[in-house]
């Protein structure tokens, strides 16, 4: 993402619509890529992207220095977490169905090449809590402690959902590899 | 954000799912524009509207005060004129104080030549709705060649006319109406003038048993004349029912609390996953009442105790909203100018008049755009309220008369729209409001 100029940020903060739309064009790739990891539905993606951008515009005065992309990534992450909290699905975070073995994730090897859409599709097979935690931990780089604090759960719960997600993703990838192999043999 | 040692699976997702350059589609942009509009609307304060209404109100109040003070000062200036004119002498009797309509008298006399005084009747007072002509006066008083005219004497005041022969005539109205006239014998004019010049106000003027029309020359005394000099009222302005106002115009200002109620569609084929119960509950907790300023320019027509009211009103309908799910908040304000037609009934109480009224109003929308969350709870929907509105109103007004022509009032008012003011098939809102208006009016 190209960093916006100070002038553009100032004009957007002052409410100039042209500047706001220009800033939106800059932020959109980052925002939509995050939204797609969490939501399959395009309306949900649109809601979270635009909510996050409006919040960014509202708080532009508070943005001082640093990488703008990191700042707006944090805004959209918070937006997603807030949305999750507001939703009934929040209680699913506390559901522990079974013990999960984490073995195998470390030695995961895949010769297959995945496109963005394929991986996004795989993420959508995860339960919502698992997808949320996996995104926050594996892709966005939050620690379990931070995730626990953000979601109001214990670190153990965060770890459990991460393991659950990895296990499921590994199964899905293996399954996909097998299908691809059969297809190529056939 | 701490980075732990990367799991291969995590790394796969992190590297592949990096942002790629792409442009937002039109749906995203439209939705964003709506949100930014809502944000801008929230920021924009109605300073202009406040100023306009404040200035308007101030102008009206100042104009009213000036008008009222001019009216008061007119009497005062007449009083000072009385002192400067040898022919105008005032007496403020207790009887005069009780009059309900300001009256005045002007004494004019062509007295320089007592032998050839000509009658002058520029203004004629009225008694019991009768107008007395110069000719009738001459018939009544053939010896009168010079006539001192008195106009608009106070109700139930009495006037004593001093004649040359020192007899006293006390002229009075028999009823509460304008006193008529005083005619003076020309031969008495010079004496009368002297007496008038020396006239001192007397406080206890007794009403006469007879009127001036019944008086004979012999009954005309040379006693001092009690004259109330106040305001000149031309003959053509005198009305038999002067003092009974039939019209009034006034202003009312106030604040109302607006209560919004809405319906949600029970099912919508076009909206997959729509839950009416959830939508209703969500809107109930996300929308709440707001308040508005009311401004009424009012005309009233009196038919005994019945009052017909109309005029021009400014009011607002709307609500505040805070949709947490989509992080949008703001206030819908639908602004209307309307013409009411109401029927009121006056019930006089001890010191005030209680005037309940019921009526109907037809309004035109000055601002009709608003925003609500969509039934799927995922974005804002922009709506327009009805361009023409209909509503009913009930007002319980308490009126206090500051003077004969000025009233102040306070009035609780209830209004409700007839039908849905907002209705686009999925969003249907109707409104009620309860407010308190204060105002004043001029009767004429």
Topology overview:
The complex is a heterodimer of chains A (186) and B (444).
Chain A: H1 6-13, H2 17-38, H3 42-58, H4 68-86, H5 116-123, H6 128-139, H7 144-151, H8 155-185
Chain B: H1 8-16, H2 26-43, H3 47-84, H4 94-97, E1 126-127, E2 130-131, H5 134-140, E3 158-162, E4 168-172, H6 189-197, E5 247-263, H7 276-286, E6 287-288, E7 290-303, E8 306-323, E9 328-345, E10 347-348, E11 353-367, E12 369-373, E13 380-384, E14 388-401, E15 406-417, E16 422-423, E17 428-443
Antiparallel strand pairs in B: 1-2, 3-4, 5-7, 5-17, 6-8, 7-8, 8-9, 9-11, 10-11, 11-14, 12-13, 14-15, 15-17, 16-17
- The secondary-structure class of chain A comes to mainly alpha
DSSP summary: helix tally of chain B: 7
Please write the string of helix (H) and strand (E) elements of chain A. HHHHHHHH
The count of DSSP E runs of length 2 or more, i.e. the number of strands of chain A, is: 0
Give the overall shape of chain B, derived from the CA principal axes: elongated
Helicity level of chain B: 10-25%
Stretches with pLDDT under 50, minimum 5 residues of chain B? 79-138, 143-189, 200-210, 235-242
DSSP strand content of chain A: under 5%
Number of helices of chain A: 8
Q: Oligomeric form of this entry?
A: heterodimer
Q: What is the alpha-carbon Rg of chain B in Å? A: 37 Å
Mean pLDDT of chain A: 81
Q: How are helices and strands ordered from N to C of chain B?
A: HHHHEEHEEHEHEEEEEEEEEEEE
In percent terms, what proportion of residues of chain B is strand?
Answer: 25-35%
């Amino acid at each position: 993402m190209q960093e916006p100029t100070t002038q553009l940020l100032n004009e957007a903060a002052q409410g100039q619509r042209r500047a706001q739309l220009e800033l939106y064009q800059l932020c959109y790739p980052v925002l939509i890529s995050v939204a797609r990891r969490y939501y399959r539905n395009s309306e949900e993606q649109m809601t979270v992207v635009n909510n996050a951008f409006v919040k960014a515009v509202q708080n532009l005065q508070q943005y001082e220095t640093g990488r703008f992309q990191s700042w707006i990534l944090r805004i959209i992450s918070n937006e997603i977490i807030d949305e999750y909290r507001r939703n009934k699905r929040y209680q699913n975070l506390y559901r522990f169905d079974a013990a999960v073995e984490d073995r195998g994730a470390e030695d995961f090897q895949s010769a297959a090449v995945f496109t963005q859409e394929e991986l996004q599709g795989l993420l959508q097979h995860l339960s919502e809590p698992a997808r949320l935690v996996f995104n926050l931990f594996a892709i966005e780089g939050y620690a379990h402690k931070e995730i626990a604090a953000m979601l109001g759960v214990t670190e153990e719960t965060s770890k459990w959902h991460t393991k659950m997600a990895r296990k499921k993703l590994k199964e899905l990838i293996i399954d996909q590899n097998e299908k691809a192999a059969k297809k190529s043999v056939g | 954000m701490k980075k732990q040692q990367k799991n291969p699976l995590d790394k796969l997702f992190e590297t592949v799912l990096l942002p790629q350059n792409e442009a937002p589609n039109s749906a995203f942009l439209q939705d964003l524009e709506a949100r930014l509009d809502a944000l801008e609307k929230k920021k924009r304060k109605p300073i202009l509207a406040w100023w306009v209404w404040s200035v308007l109100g101030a102008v009206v109040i100042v104009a009213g005060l000036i008008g009222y003070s001019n009216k008061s000062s007119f009497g005062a200036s007449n009083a000072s004129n009385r002192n400067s004119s040898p022919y105008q002498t005032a007496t403020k009797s207790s009887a005069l104080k009780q009059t309900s309509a300001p009256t005045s008298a002007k004494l004019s006399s062509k007295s320089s030549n007592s032998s050839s005084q000509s009658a002058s009747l520029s203004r004629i007072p009225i008694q019991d709705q009768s107008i007395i002509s110069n000719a009738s006066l001459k018939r009544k008083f053939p010896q009168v060649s010079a006539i001192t005219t008195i106009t608009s004497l106070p109700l139930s005041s009495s006037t004593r006319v001093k004649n040359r022969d020192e007899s006293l005539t006390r002229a009075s109205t028999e009823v509460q109406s304008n006193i008529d006239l005083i005619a003076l014998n020309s031969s008495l004019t010079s004496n009368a003038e002297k007496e008038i010049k020396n006239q001192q106000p007397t406080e206890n003027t007794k009403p006469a048993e007879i009127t001036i029309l019944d008086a004979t020359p012999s009954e005309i005394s040379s006693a001092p004349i009690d004259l109330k000099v106040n305001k000149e009222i031309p003959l053509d302005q005198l009305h038999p029912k002067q003092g009974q106002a039939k019209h009034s115009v006034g202003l009312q200002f106030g604040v109302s609390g607006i209560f919004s109620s809405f319906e949600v569609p029970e099912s919508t084929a076009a909206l997959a996953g729509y839950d009416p119960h959830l939508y209703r509950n969500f809107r109930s907790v996300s929308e709440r009442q707001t308040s508005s300023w009311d401004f009424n320019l009012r005309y009233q027509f009196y038919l005994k105790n019945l009052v017909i009211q109309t005029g021009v009103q400014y009011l607002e309908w709307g609500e505040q909203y805070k949709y947490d799910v989509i992080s949008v908040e703001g206030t819908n304000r639908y602004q209307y100018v309307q013409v009411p037609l109401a029927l009121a009934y006056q019930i006089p109480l001890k010191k005030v008049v209680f005037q309940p009224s019921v009526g109907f109003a037809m309004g035109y929308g000055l601002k009709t755009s608003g925003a609500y969350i969509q039934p799927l709870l995922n974005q804002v929907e922009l709506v327009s309220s009805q361009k023409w509105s209909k509503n009913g109103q009930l007002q319980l007004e308490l009126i206090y008369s500051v003077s004969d022509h000025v009233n102040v009032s306070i009035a609780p008012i209830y209004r409700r729209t007839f039908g849905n003011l907002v209705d686009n098939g999925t969003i249907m809102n109707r409104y009620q409001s309860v407010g308190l208006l204060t105002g004043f009016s001029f009767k004429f």
